[in-house]
């Protein structure tokens, strides 16, 4: 009814209506518009419940004024005049009145906690001093309740959240002329499991609770969450819990930004943030020491490290990394310690005590052991450099039995231990943590002397060092050896990602045919906008693109400047772009372990390998389509590609089809072939047997059996046999004015009438022959007679009757005489008159037969066309042609290709028929049907 006025001059909620005006002189006009609509729908108002011309009034239980939304005085007075409860029922009445005013009460759950504890459980009623104190504080608070503000359209709103031991709370505010005014207070008591959440999870729960309760505000306004905690970083962290991932996806629907909160600009908001050590400056506990437990593992299946970091408040972070390079036990121990120190730096720890069960690592760091190996020395320098960033750092050796958690995490990364019951994200360390300036080369005294003499150096194979049986000792280098260094790790060829149970090779295999990858303009990196949003909160300027970015980015996380996508079936997928995509796709499709799979199957396999980019399926499908080997070995196409095309004739022997059957079993007279001609209209068949069929025999057959008996036909349809494409046959037809139409090669369905006649003749011959197969020559004429005197389904008539105007006398009438044999000879004049009448009505019978033929063809077309999948080609398209037996690879057998080419379409002869040429420009002799062609993707 009032849809045109809602939000402008009216507000309606069920049966409550409010007419509002900014100017007093416009109010009467707005009321008139409202009353006109009410009269139109024949609705009446109760005058006792109407109030007109007031600057403020009650609406939906609240007092609406020009200052904002105020609590109902009646509800306030009812609470202030309420005495202290004396039983459970009065406590329930008290909590009900508080619930009606929750919107105006800051941290209402915390203030009302003593009342809720009385109602919890089956304890006896006890109103103690704590309850009385809370009751008095609430009365004092509600003596001057806050006035809530109303936000403007598209105005940015601010959300403050707080956390206590039992509740999460929030307040939504707006800025008006530099002052922050509250819009809505929310509060929620935590369940028993929620009270055991970490502090970050409780803060996230406060934001999620606010978004759920204030959904209309979050949907229609940009929200800025003000907190001094790294909420946005935590929600996009790859190490977050499952519930944080779920909340991050839920919050991605809204336009939310996270920023550090500033000083309060209103006393009501300052009251909200009192007693909140979480949002203010954190109280520093007496013990500021973080405990770090590290361990490394190296086995045949691979190498891994495990880290356990425990905060001063007993919060635990656990991480597991798989090393994508060969590492000894000592190197794995050092990698674990380095990764743990970097994690401690990331969380802002200042005092760290590290525990490690490696005697070598601990003693080398403390100076008890000397680092004689270059790699151990390089690792030691990295550890010492990282330890200087802490105010206090200590490395202590502990027995392996006291380091079980880190040991299990390391085993998880290296061997995927099935005994672990917890789900820990396993990440990867692709490169060593150490880099020296030069590669390790061994220069002996003889080589040094050769250098001095200026002799050319001979490249030596890399020195293979035998691992010591004891993991805490490294082999010494001979004193007379001179060491020079070159780069150990080459960044230009990073080691490939390995599966969790795959053992890394000594030298990582580079994807083959990398040099053959064509240069391609990949455009802008799709990962960069998501990275910028996660790191800095930068959003596109377009409103809808910004909203999409917030929704999409919730499914991604950033780790050391590397973007990962949270998968549904897989924990994390590495996001790749550009040449990396080409390398991965090519390797999976046609690499050493490639199976030339289809596009979708290849995309799912790549996803299972741990990679992701937005257009995975599309790119994989296109790559598989363009693979030449896949195209040449693709399955043959049997589904029809063009609509049903029928050929008909309006009168007998206007259009005929001709074909050859054979070679058959040599007959008693030496014949092996049958030349068959079928009339399209009457289905009449003429056939003769030959020892061999040449073009002269075809000409004689047409002269004797067709022209001399039935007249000159208009058209003959035949295939591309040598007898039919000869110059002599074409000259004979041209002399008699007969049009010759040829079907496309290797497509017998185009000459379907001839194929159907051949099938019928062969079927009848088989049934008449016993073990003497050469007797088919003697059975040919009886088969033709039987065919000509049998009604055909398309016409409903026998071929004999459509040609001669009456039915033939068959042998059965000789043995059992019918009316024609018994009555007709008695009256010759009447018999002649009946014959004349039959000949006079022959045209009518032929017309009816033609209608039945057309109905039959339409029914066949409906059935055939239901299975057609159109595959049109155009001039210039590249196509492959089906390989037939005479062109198959010699000796290939079933391993040969199914298609050959490619060819280029040069002409569209008609629907489904095309002329081709090869890549060298030589035209293919005859047009080809689409059933034998397949699109080639370049």
UniProtKB/TrEMBL annotation:
Biased composition range(s): Basic residues: 463-472
Highest taxon above the source species: Eukaryota
Keyword terms, alphabetized: Nucleotidyltransferase, RNA-directed DNA polymerase, Transferase
Region (Disordered): 451-476, 487-506
Stored InterPro entries: Integrase_cat-core, Integrase_H2C2, RNaseH_domain, RT_dom, RT_RNaseH_2
PROSITE patterns per UniProt: INTEGRASE, RNASE_H_1, RT_POL
Integrase catalytic domain boundaries: 648-807
GO BP terms in the entry: DNA integration
Pfam family, one: RVT_3
Residues annotated as domain RNase H type-1: 286-415
Gene Ontology molecular function, alphabetical: nucleic acid binding; RNA-directed DNA polymerase activity; RNA-DNA hybrid ribonuclease activity
Compositional bias ranges of the Acidic residues kind: 487-499
Start and end residues of each Reverse transcriptase domain: 1-64
Protein name: Reverse transcriptase domain
Organism: Arabidopsis suecica
Lineage of source species: Eukaryota, Viridiplantae, Streptophyta, Embryophyta, Tracheophyta
